[in-house]
Each structure stands twice: as structure tokens, then as C-alpha cells.
UniProtKB/TrEMBL annotation:
The name this protein goes by in its record: Transposase
Domain DUF4277: 7-113
Any one Pfam family match given in the protein's UniProt record, by short name: DUF4277
One Gene Ontology term from the biological process aspect of the record: DNA transposition
Domain Transposase IS4-like residue range list: 125-450
Domain of life: Bacteria
GO molecular function, one term: DNA binding
PANTHER family assigned: PTHR34614, TRANSPOSASE IS4-LIKE DOMAIN-CONTAINING PROTEIN (PTHR34614:SF2)
């Protein structure tokens, strides 16, 4: 009797699974835990792989829907023999998350990241530090002892009404792979968060990876952090510093296309530094548009204030002059100029007396012209597009001015990672588990997912570069730097057909086969290419 034919969709999940295997993450995770396989049919490492596949499947499935995500997927091929979708229930995955949280997510992730970078032969010279927030919905068990607390705090998602959790991350500069993650309570601010990382983790990461420079945004430029950090660093300088406001702009020279600058030596927080005062033409054009709108609003607001004062009546010129002086001092963008005083005869009831006729009483009303303060306008315009980068590397032969700018712009790698993690198609923009410790563990899973994604993208680009190959981009033009998401899209619609003598792959085209051949046997085997 012929078996019933049925198919399972694999799409790009074979690529994800192959990357997970190539990094040997399941074996490493399982080696770190005592496996309670009497109570579960899959190991903790396999649970992690399943959750990463769920996240990178862009299915918008929550933790409690992982089993349904795998119902139409080739589970045994992706996760191992005798594993079924029903095994990936919320109880099994929840206990795995509990175990991960109890072990320590930062500790576990550091061990995995070390292996990932070793397998990819990454030796990062620069690492980038930043943090972001994830808001939470619903009620959570606050009685448990957890490393994080759900608190209200500064929300980068513009949801101050919701409690949140903070994720601190450090990524390497070559592939954008996180090499450090730490979950923090929702009310932790960047300055104290970064200070802890600089004191506790940067020295350890330097030993593990022999990194040369820590790159930070302006939140890292504080006295406490600069005094604590014994390694070399690059940071943006906050525009609010007194030293910045008092800075005299010198002649700018070209640094790179669309960038001009001048440099100077500065000592701040007891640390001698090089400052690059940089003007970005593109940033200027972007900022000046919004500034002009704000400037007009300021003028309109101050004009209303002035007109209101011009309606006032004063009993003497002295009072009127004092009021106008006080008014002008309170204004920033405009002043009342060409001032005159209009006499207003005070009329009394009844017939005026001879005294009133000979010596009339006058009140005074101020007249004048509302004029903008052009010096303020010109100064504020001159500040647009300007930012300052600092480093404690004083040797320009070791770190040139252009290297400072180039590697600070690498901060976009960590920002891109955060955007990826907050993508609505990813695991979740908010969380739906009921234990705080599981939120900590889910942040670990999300960071691990980002690492696998970034590893996949790095491998694809490296292979294309080494073999001098390209693939078509979204508009059909050849590229050797495709995004991983685009490559995933190219593998859409691939199924495995079961019920015959051997499993058959459906809907594979020549381009997909070529990409798999470039990636190697580890990837080809998931698509049954002999």
C-alpha cells in the first residue's frame, strides 16, 4: 500500500539550523548543564536551537506557540531524530528558560560568544557598547528572586506607561556579533549601566578577545567611566558639557567625503585626550530643516509674549523701562527694539479742575519693533551638523583621525542589532511569559538569535568575497554583500516531500542550489543535495 504523500516547509530554516550546527552551539550548551532527560525528551541545547529557529522564522509566534510553529516544519531534520513538534511545549521550554536563568545568562552567553568568534575566526580590534529597552505587558510574578526587576524607566520605545527591562550589549566590529549581554532592571540608566560594564566586563573581554578599543556613545562619556576605564576607548562627547559650549570653532579641514574637522588636545576627568570636532554636511542638511521649523515657533511664541506686554499701561516711564528691560532679558531669540513711550491722558470723572488742565496726569504704554536676535540665530545654525569624538589614544600612528570617525560610525552595528531584535516579525517586541526570570532568559535567546543571524550574514558575505561570487539583490543587480534577511527570502517556498522511498526536495531553483554549494556540505545536507 502506498504511503500518503505530505510535505513540510523548510524555507530558510535549513540555513539557520546549519549555522547553529557549524557553530556547535547545541553541544556546548548541553555540556554546561546536567540534563534532566527523564523529564524532557529534548536537551536544553536543542530547546535553545528550537527557540532560535522560531525567532529567525519571523513567524511572530510567542513562547507558548513554538510547538504550533513547528507543526508544518521538518522537525526531525532541523532538531534531531525522534523529536516531534509536541515535545516543544510551553512546559518544556519554560523549564529550559528557568535553567538558563539560574545558570546566569551573562555567564552562559559569554561562553557561547567566545566559541562563535573562534569558529568564525574573528579577532575584533574594536567593540561597541550600547543598551536598549523592551517593555512588558501584563502581570508578572515578583515574589521570585530574579537578577532583574520590571520597572518604569526611560523608554526608548516611547511607552513610559509600561514597565520595562534593559538589555546592555557589546558587539564586535567585524560581523556585528554580540560578545556580551546583560539583562538589567527597567529603571537602570545608561551611565550607571555602562560604568558597571566598563568596571566588570571590559577587562574580561579584553583578555578573551584581545580587543584594543571600546567604542561608546555619549552616555559613556562620564567622569566615573573615563576614570575607571584603563583600556583605550573612543566616545562621542555630550554637547551639554561646559567645555563643549565654550569651544571656539577653528578652521575646518577635510576629513572624509561630507566631513570636515579640526582636532585639539583636551584633559577631562584627569584623562588626556584627542578631540575631533567634526562637521557632517549630511547631518547639517538634516538638522537645519528641523531647526528652522523650531526657530520659527520660538519667534512666534516670543512675539506673543511681547505683544501681551505691549498692552500693559504704566504709571511712569521708569516702571515701563524696567519692565521692558526685564522682558528683553527673558527672551532668547528676539528683542523689543526702537522703543518709544506713548502718553495716555488719565481722564477723571466729572469736570476737570484747573490743576488737571494745567498739570495733566499721564500713563505710559510702550511701543516698539519686534526684531530677531541674528547673532543667536547664526550661532545656533553654526552648531548644526557638529559633533565631537574623543579618544585617549594620543598616538595618531596607532589610531588616525579618519580611523576614529570610521570606527565610531561602526556603532551602527549595535543599533542595527537592536532594531532587528525589536522587529515585530522577530520573537516579540514585548514579552508574554509570566516569570521575570524567564524574561531574562528570553533576552538571552534573542541575543543568541541575533548572533546566529549575524554569523550567517558574515559567512555568506565572506564566502562571496573569497570566491569572487555575487547573488542578485532585491532589484536584480549583483551584490557580494547581501543582507541575511534577503538570502532567507530567496529560500522562500522550499518544501520537503515525504511518503515516497526517499524524501524529495520541492521548489529548489538553480540560484538556491548555487548558494548552498558556496556555503558547503553543512548547509547542503539540510536540503538533501547529494
Amino acid at each position: 500500500m502506498q504511503s500518503q504523500l505530505f510535505s513540510k516547509s523548510i524555507n530558510h530554516l535549513g540555513l539557520v539550523s546549519a549555522m547553529f550546527d557549524e557553530l556547535d552551539l547545541v553541544n556546548l550548551i548541553d555540556s554546561l548543564f546536567k540534563q534532566d532527560l527523564d523529564n524532557r525528551k529534548i536537551s536544553i541545547g536543542t530547546c535553545c536551537k528550537a527557540l532560535v529557529l522560531n525567532g529567525l522564522g519571523f513567524s511572530q509566534r510567542t513562547l507558548y506557540m513554538v510547538s504550533s510553529f513547528f507543526e508544518d516544519k521538518p522537525v526531525e531534520e532541523l532538531l534531531g531524530k525522534n523529536i516531534e513538534a509536541s515535545h516543544l511545549n510551553d512546559s518544556v521550554l519554560g523549564r529550559a528558560l528557568d535553567t538558563i536563568s539560574a545558570y546566569g545568562t551573562t555567564k552562559l552567553y559569554t561562553q557561547l560568544a567566545t566559541q562563535i568568534c573562534t569558529r568564525l575566526e574573528l579577532k575584533p580590534k574594536f567593540v561597541h557598547m550600547d543598551s536598549t529597552t523592551f517593555h512588558v505587558d501584563g502581570d508578572y510574578d515578583t515574589s521570585e528572586n530574579s537578577v532583574i526587576e520590571l520597572k518604569h524607566g526611560y523608554s526608548r520605545d516611547y511607552r513610559p506607561d509600561l514597565k520595562q527591562v534593559v538589555l546592555n550589549m557589546i558587539v564586535e566590529n567585524q560581523a556585528g556579533i554580540p560578545i556580551h549581554m546583560q539583562s538589567c532592571s527597567g529603571n537602570v540608566d545608561d551611565k550607571s549601566n555602562f560604568a558597571q560594564s566598563v568596571g566588570n566586563f571590559i577587562p574580561k573581554l579584553h583578555k578573551l578577545y584581545e580587543t584594543n578599543y571600546l567604542v561608546m556613545d555619549s552616555a559613556g562619556y562620564t567622569r566615573s567611566i573615563l576614570e575607571t576605564c584603563k583600556k583605550k576607548w573612543i566616545s562621542r562627547v555630550p554637547a551639554t558639557l561646559k567645555e563643549v559650549k565654550e569651544l571656539v570653532l577653528n578652521d575646518f579641514k577635510e576629513l572624509a567625503p561630507n566631513y570636515t574637522y579640526f582636532s585639539k588636545r583636551v584633559t577631562y576627568a584627569g584623562v588626556e585626550q584627542r578631540w575631533l570636532i567634526i562637521h557632517s554636511q549630511k547631518a547639517y542638511e538634516r538638522e537645519i530643516k528641523s531647526y528652522e521649523k523650531r526657530y520659527q515657533k520660538h519667534l512666534e511664541k516670543e512675539a506673543k509674549t511681547i505683544k501681551k506686554h505691549l498692552k500693559e499701561i504704566f504709571s511712569c516711564k521708569t516702571d515701563a523701562k524696567k519692565a521692558i528691560e526685564k522682558l528683553n532679558k527673558s527672551l532668547k531669540y528676539s528683542r523689543l527694539e526702537n522703543i518709544s513711550f506713548q502718553n495716555i491722558l488719565v481722564k477723571k470723572k466729572g469736570r476737570p479742575s484747573k490743576k488737571d488742565i494745567l498739570h495733566p496726569t499721564f500713563n505710559y504704554q510702550v511701543k516698539g519693533e519686534i526684531l530677531p536676535i541674528l547673532s543667536v540665530y547664526e550661532y545656533e545654525k553654526s552648531q548644526k551638523g557638529i559633533f565631537i569624538l574623543a579618544t585617549n589614544q594620543l598616538d595618531e600612528d596607532e589610531l588616525s583621525d579618519i580611523d576614529i570617525l570610521t570606527n565610531y560610525k561602526g556603532q551602527s552595528k549595535i543599533e542595527r542589532g537592536f532594531r532587528f531584535m525589536k522587529d515585530p516579525q522577530f520573537i516579540a517586541a514585548s514579552f508574554f511569559v509570566k516569570k521575570t526570570s524567564r524574561i531574562d532568559a528570553l533576552l538571552f535567546i534573542m541575543t543568541l538569535s541575533l548572533s546566529v543571524y549575524a554569523s550567517m550574514e558574515y559567512k555568506i558575505r565572506k564566502v562571496l568575497e573569497v570566491k569572487n561570487e555575487t547573488i542578485p539583490n532585491q532589484v536584480g543587480k549583483p551584490t557580494n554583500k547581501p543582507s541575511c534577511r534577503w538570502v532567507f527570502h530567496l529560500f522562500k517556498g522550499i518544501h520537503l516531500l515525504y511518503g515516497m522511498e526517499k524524501t524529495i526536495i520541492l521548489n529548489m531553483n538553480k540560484e538556491q542550489k548555487r548558494i548552498l554549494a558556496l556555503l558547503g556540505e553543512q548547509f547542503e545536507k539540510y536540503y538533501i543535495i547529494e
